[in-house]
UniProtKB/TrEMBL annotation:
A motif (Histidine triad motif) lies at residues 107-111. Transmembrane segments: none annotated. Coiled coil: none annotated. This is Histidine triad nucleotide-binding protein. Residues 5-123 form the HIT domain. It comes from the Bacteria. InterPro entries: Histidine_triad_CS, Histidine_triad_HIT, HIT-like, HIT-like_sf. The lineage of its organism: Bacteria, Pseudomonadati, Pseudomonadota, Betaproteobacteria, Burkholderiales. Pfam families: DcpS_C. It comes from Undibacterium umbellatum.
Length: 123
């Protein structure tokens, strides 16, 4: 898609701090991080929003979701069990969809947001 910033990032026409790439997906650091770890996972193919997906995108979406825990582990923000059995760490995955969903970039992307708190908007 012409004029789509994430298509340009996927095509390496605009640089990004990438942390993962394969034939179908790219993951890179958000330029304005809301937390110590803030990644964006995108499909290389242009899809406007989650609400634009077609049945043939189901496997791609599964791949995006399955990548999140791997990247969180690599970035050091996966949940960890403490000696007393409690959990620490963790992250959230988020897909903003449409204006009321807070979507600003209209190329499907999944946020992976985590790391030690406080984060923006979080206690
Ligand atoms: P949305 O609100 O659409 O879910 O989130 C878009 C995200 O993309 C924002 O968190 C914003 O900081 C990030 N972003 C926008 N432009 C760029 C860019 O050129 N490079 C990178 N790395 N992140 C961007
Ligand atoms: Zn695009």
């Amino acid at each position: 898609m012409d004029n789509c910033i994430f298509c340009k990032i996927a095509a390496k026409q605009i640089p990004s701090a990438s942390v993962y790439e394969d034939e179908e997906l790219l993951a890179f650091k958000d330029i304005n991080p809301a937390a110590p770890v803030h990644l964006l996972i995108i499909p290389k193919v242009h899809i406007d929003t989650l609400s634009s997906i077609q049945p043939e995108h189901t496997a791609l979406l599964g791949k995006m979701l399955a990548l999140a825990p791997k990247l969180a582990q690599e970035q050091g923000c996966a949940p960890v069990q403490q000696a007393d059995g409690s959990l620490s760490g963790g992250y959230k995955t988020l897909i903003n969809t449409g204006p009321d969903g807070g979507q600003e970039v209209y190329h499907l992307h999944m946020h992976v947001i985590g790391g030690p708190k406080p984060w923006r908007g979080q206690r």
